[in-house]
Amino acid sequence: MNTLAEDSKDHKTKRKQKLKNVLRLLISLIAFTCLIKFGRVDLHTAFKYLIKVNPVFFALAYLCYLSTMLIAAMRFHFSSHVLGFNKKYFQLLQLNFVGTFFNNFLPTTFGGDALRGYYLRQGTHISLAKAAACIIYERYTGMIVLFWAASFVFILQSLGVIHTSWGIPNQLIMFTHLGSIITIFLIPFLPQLSNLFLGNSNWVYKKIIEPVVVYWHDLKLMTRILLLSFLLQSFVLLCHFFIALALDIKIPFSYYFAFYPLTTIAGFMIPSLNGLGIREGTYIYFLSKVNVSNEEGLAFSICWLIVLLITSFIGGVVYMFGDFRKHKPLEDASHESNN
Question: pTM score > 0.90 for this model?
């Protein structure tokens, strides 16, 4: 009876996930259709920009993005090993490539991050909550850097250090400041706030805070992960810089610290098939603020998509032939930690 109940529950979960994926696909298609129909984008002109891409600068852009995969694997190594997981660095690097593949190519029941968490935990007795905590904490530190970067450049602009006005709505500027304030003055104190208002033992603490509390208690580890996230996002920003050079698009360097975080946050928060349609629309919108034409903005976003798809292709190959599924026996891992 229990098996039948579990099978029924699993079937319902998969059906819900499929419906969510269909919804994301529909949102992406609608967004892309509206972008072409109402965004006044000349596809022929955008294609002209694409075929004139400077291959040297585009190669540099991709090398920058490839560097982010190496950095992300190092961050994954630190954030997972403190929770007791024992995957090797090269296996974690493979897992990141596989996650990129599933995020970009397949609207599957496993998202890229869910799959990384699944294979991270496979072969261990560590709770699923800790695997999820590791993945969420990585995402969280990346978002922190994005909010801080955007807030920093907007503050410089308000102080007159950056003289150019980009015409970004005040609501978006306030949103980035609010995000930064929350990450600085609220999130770090969640364990204390939970104990203060809900007591020492409560659902919020057990399910959400306890799996990641180790990061709060280890300032050195938290600083190291944050620095790696900062380095990672810096290389993504450089990737954008080289894409602009490849297309011969003139963008003020300070503006990268505003538009790249905002486009990424928008793609992350709005449901879609890995940002498809949403990403193109946000790139066109924010680049138009510095007098980049809609066609150039679309060409820019397509170049960025190509970078992601190349990485996804590598991830597909790794998924078929990689050894990321292997794990060290628990006794070997404990022996290494003792040494």
Answer: no
